[in-house]
Design brief:
This protein has 491 residues and is α/β, with parallel strands linked by helices. It contains 16 helices and 22 strands.
Length: 491
């Protein structure tokens, strides 16, 4: 946030100033009185079990300049700005901030992979531009405004992650962020409890386009059956489709261009084919692209070899989308490749540690049926040269509603068809995954163990894991399976 006066804040939020001078300025925004609030505008947010208004005095005592409030001021000895809703005022301030930013805004959503893609895009874009990105899981109507309001004067590109649980939420975020480039990574089953079906999820994710700048760029996963048939976005100047295409290794682009099922969409596409699997060190592939320039008939294309530093074919689509963003922002392809190679994931996302003769792949931050299957593919395909056992420690997947039992069973059956040596499931819902794996006629090898809680597993984990194992840990965030990883790693 760039030195906004209290008068400007009142104008942006429709608030009324009580006490203090209207030309008094703040240089940051805070919603947490426990952190550094000096020089800030403190915005109290209320939750189910707390009310941020109770911490206004403490924030002022620690150096906050002013606070917003929904309560009627009582002649407090510090400046207050009375607003109808502090939550809405935070969003209004972010809209005001966005209106002063002239650089590019990239927005990402999807059922899985959006945080990894966001981090990879930021790594690519930072090769040319001073880049601000969403930190952690700040991807809702509080986190996204705080990201925008943390902008510094020298930031040139902002990369925003947009998450949701219900219809209408991404629409709000899109109208705040007003992106110039929009991406959807995939359409899976995450949040199907609230959205009813994958078609409902597609509708909710497509809200990202509602606030997009005129003639913006849309980047979609062309291998996703729902995204590949998405109608043309009305205000898009260009739509780019990403494809995982093993049939273009000959160095030509004819294999994709000749596909009749792509229709006009092959005017702008990006694709990749694997040249070498490097185990836990990732994948080497050749990326090909053929883009239609905005408002012109001429096209530009090319190819380059890229090293994706994390294993798994699902990482290829993340790299394709990141590469497409880089090209749209006119970054040299060689620099884009460097940005992808240097990318590192956020905490608890594909964090690889070697300890006590085992390799621990900690991907415990979150999970959905599609991301679980992608993780299994990574273990059995990308790591097929691993000499030791392949072990999955999987926990419950949340927000699946009435589909939970079926989808956990589906993942169990999927694992059963793969060469997994040991499946360990944790949690009441994962019991269905365990049973489907154990009872499936497709089981190729391996065995399965089930534990009701992570504490039950941790009490005897040494009896089940051994030197040489490659262990993948994954579950929905609420399962806190990072504690399993931490316990194994510290021993």
């Amino acid at each position: 946030m760039l030195n906004y006066t209290l008068e400007a804040i009142c104008k942006a939020t429709g608030g009324v100033l009580y006490g203090g001078k209207k030309d008094l300025a703040v240089n940051t925004v805070s919603t947490d009185s426990r952190g550094d609030v000096s020089g800030s505008l403190f915005i109290p947010i209320s939750g189910d079990s707390f009310d941020g208004h109770d911490y206004i005095e403490g924030a002022i005592a620690k150096g906050a300049v002013c606070a917003l409030t929904e309560r009627e001021p009582q002649n407090e000895p510090y400046p207050l700005i009375k607003v109808t809703s502090t939550r809405q005022a935070l969003m209004d301030l972010a809209v005001y901030e966005r209106s002063h930013f002239t650089g590019s805004v990239v927005a990402i959503t999807g059922s899985a992979g959006k945080t990894t893609t966001k981090d990879m895009i930021a790594s690519v874009v930072s090769k040319k531009y001073n880049t601000l990105k969403t930190q952690g899981n700040f991807n809702n109507d509080i986190g996204l405004p705080l990201t925008l309001l943390s902008r510094k004067r020298d930031h040139e590109v902002i990369v925003l992650e947009m998450g949701m649980n219900h219809f209408g939420e991404i629409s709000v975020l899109s109208h705040i962020g007003k992106p110039s480039i929009c991406l959807i990574t995939n359409i899976g089953d995450a949040h199907i409890e609230n959205l009813g079906s994958r078609e409902g999820i597609l509708k909710a994710k497509s809200e990202i386009f509602e606030g997009m700048k005129e003639n913006g760029t849309v980047i979609l996963n062309g291998d996703d059956p729902l995204l590949s048939t998405l109608p043309q976005v009305p205000n898009a100047g260009k739509t780019i489709y990403g494809y995982r295409r093993p049939d273009i290794l000959d160095g030509t682009v004819t294999a994709i261009s000749a596909r009749s099922d792509l229709g006009d969409k092959n005017n702008s596409w990006i694709a990749a084919t694997v040249t070498e699997y490097l185990g836990l060190k990732g994948t080497k592939c050749i990326i090909f692209w053929n883009f239609k320039a905005h408002g012109e008939k001429m096209q530009e294309g090319g190819s380059i070899q890229v090293h994706i530093p994390l294993p798994g074919d699902h990482m290829i689509m993340n790299a394709l989308m990141s590469f497409a963003v880089g090209l749209e922002l006119e970054i040299d392809p060689g620099k884009i490749a460097e940005g992808i190679k240097e990318f590192t994931p956020s905490n608890h996302r594909m964090a690889i540690v070697e300890v006590n003769g085992m390799t621990i792949v900690n991907d415990s931050y979150n999970a959905s049926p599609s991301s679980m299957k992608a993780a299994v593919d990574m273990m059995t395909d990308s790591l097929n040269d691993s000499a030791g056992r392949k072990v999955c420690i999987f926990g419950d997947m949340f927000e699946l509603g009435d589909h939970a039992e079926f989808l956990h069973k589906e993942v169990g059956q999927y694992i059963a068809a793969k060469e997994m040596d040991l499946l360990i499931t944790i949690g009441p819902l994962s019991k269905y995954m365990h049973e489907a794996f154990y009872n499936s006629p497709k089981v190729l090898q391996g065995k399965a163990l089930h534990f009701l809680t992570k504490e039950d597993f941790l009490s005897e984990w040494k009896n089940h894991l051994r030197q040489g194992d490659t262990v993948l840990i994954k579950a929905s965030r609420g399962m806190s399976l990072e504690k399993v990883a931490e316990e194994i790693i510290k021993k």
